[in-house]
Write a structure and sequence with these properties.
It is globular and about 75 Å long. It has about 260 residues and is of the alpha/beta class. The protein is about 25% helix and about 25% strand. Strand 7 and strand 8 form a beta hairpin.
């Protein structure tokens, strides 16, 4: 049996205005609807495809407050088998290093895992480093930013696509991979899946349960902090060019002035 762990995150709806708490400049998660991050849906989908191609089991792991259970239940309704939820007030304001430590400790609760799948970056923080840090902490090889994945025997193979071309990577299991938005199209949960998700086990842990020191997490122990933030300014009207026979010259002069050509 291939034991697969999927890291999922609940984020503010990308179509909602995001605000910061005035007291400490952390993200005000109550100011917007919370949803399962889109890239995480694709990570779950890829895990399910690997499971369905053979004998497998998918465990979802998430860190966050009580409302994170909504995101967990969606992953379970898609077809994941069980979940681990790490919830602790001490985690509020944790940076990506602390988050990765907690995730690595939670993954350790899945005995004999073979493959960890994550999205390449979350839509709220966009740091893109958590998967690599988790892999380092677990001491397993990492194949990141993949758009194609196959698991054969004790090996995971993937294709990373960049502006410079396509690179084929492979590593022995256990390993960690992160996937991009091009990996697949996630399925919609069926009514049967939604009902079944209500009965699937979700184990909840605190950082003490995981053996994580409270002095390593939380806003007070973060390596970075937000000092101020301002809304993005409204878009200004573009420059209009009246063509009096010299429109092409005016456009070229404008592009040169903007150092675009």
């Amino acid at each position: 049996m291939t034991k697969i762990v999927v890291l999922v995150k609940q984020v503010p709806d990308t179509y909602s205005e995001r605000k910061l708490n005035e007291s400490d400049h952390t993200l005000d998660r109550e100011s917007a609807d919370a949803v399962l991050d889109e890239i995480n849906e694709r990570a779950v989908e890829e895990a399910l495809k690997i499971k369905e191609a053979g004998d497998g089991e998918v465990t979802v792991v998430s860190v966050g407050p009580d409302r994170v259970t909504d995101a967990i239940r969606k992953a379970l309704s898609m077809g994941a088998d069980k979940a681990i939820h790490v919830s602790d007030e001490a985690l509020r304001g944790s940076d990506l290093i602390a988050t990765a430590k907690v995730l690595a400790a939670a993954i350790g609760k899945v005995e004999g895992y073979d493959l960890v799948i994550a999205g390449n970056e979350a839509s709220d923080g966009r740091g893109g480093a958590v998967p690599a840090v988790v892999a380092e902490l677990l001491g397993v090889p990492q194949l990141t930013h993949l758009r194609e994945v196959t698991v054969e025997g004790g090996t995971v193979k993937g294709v990373r696509e960049t502006d410079d071309g396509r690179t084929t990577l492979e590593a022995p299991l256990p390993a960690l991979i992160s996937v991009t938005e091009k990996i697949n199209e996630p399925r919609y949960p069926s009514f049967k899946g939604i009902m079944a998700a209500k009965k699937k086990p979700v184990d909840t842990f605190t950082i003490a349960d995981l053996g994580v020191d409270a002095g390593e997490v939380g806003l007070g122990n973060a390596w970075s902090s937000v000092t101020e933030a301002a809304p993005k300014p409204p878009r200004q009207a573009g420059q209009r060019v009246e063509d009096e026979g010299d429109g092409g010259v005016k456009i070229a002069e404008y592009l040169v002035g903007q150092k675009l050509i």
